[in-house]
Amino acid sequence: MFTYEVLRIIWWLLLGVLLAGFAIMDGFDFGLAALLPVLGRNDEERRVLLETIEPTWEGNQVWFILGGGAVFAAWPLLYAVSFSGMYEAILLVLLAFIVRPVGFNFRNKMPGRVWRNIWDGGLTVSGLVVMLICGVAFGNLFLGLPFRFDDDLRMSWEGGFFNLLQPFAILCGLVSIVLLLMHGASWASLKSDPQIARRASRIAQACSVAFIALYGLAGVYLLHGVTAYRLVGAISSGGVSNPLLKDVARGGNWLASYAEHPAFWLAPALALLGALVVVALNRHSPRITFFFSGLTVGATIFSAGFALFPFLMPSSLDPRSSLTVWDASSSRGTLGLMLGATAVFMPIILLYTGWVYRVLRGRVTLEHIRRTHTGY
After folding, report:
1. Rounded-to-integer distance, Cα 98 and Cα 333, Å
2. Which pLDDT band holds residue 234 (cuts at 50, 70, 90)?
3. How would you class 276 by CB atoms within 10 Å of its CB: exposed for 0-12, middle for 13-18, buried for 19 or more?
């Protein structure tokens, strides 16, 4: 029904949707966990905050699994390079994911302050680690990653974890942190006791201002301080997935794709609009501002993807080895079959998720915690 070219574009967009879904749905969990010592001034307040996410955090991670599965099945070369080359970074992220359920389950097993502070600290660190590494990873995509393919498409990687910590990548990590702190604080403003919600509202506004400043700074840095990659010559989008069958040069800036596709500007515009709404309306309408906070998260993901288009993962060692939308995908049959499965199961996931959040609507109050957790 779809040509190979169209299927590749569809799956590029679906990859963005899944990444944005993960960042929106799991991002407020990580943001709230990172803010736990700031928003929760005593054990009862921290219990309130944790109970706003404990019923749903595990379901939210479905988006992480879906994203990983989509990369594995739809973009096998991207999966192979990223999971092999960035092994240490991905291992840190997975360890942070492991700490979360342990922290949720073990925190209240004992009443001691030291015991609970240890697990609260673990939840906070896990949130910060995931936000920072994901942002740094995105930043390194623009800089190019140190991999290459030989003539038999065997990949080699040069460099280690600390080579990823370059100034622009760290700036992107900071953008990720303030973005998801804003999202987590917006969630706390919507779902927690009014006493905590007022505090969360102020933090969400401060993080929104910080996001606008850092996001703008990252855009200026990207425009003037990072050399882009560009395809040279015509690309046969219906050809086989072999990255070595193209020519790539370095030059210009990454915002060139915005000049070629003016509709791409909608993404950064929505990101900034959403952040401004959070600044302006957070104290007055937490439901609306949480929606716009999520919009900012998703639009930020897409603004990065649009700037990279058509590249998925540029290579700093051998630009010709760079992975693009046109040469890193699975076969046409695989993409078509997966699209059919997605068309069936994605609406089910969305409907079920919406039902869960409707059932769990309302605030978690201090009174509820005192009534249900007496003696623990």
Report:
1. 35
2. low
3. middle
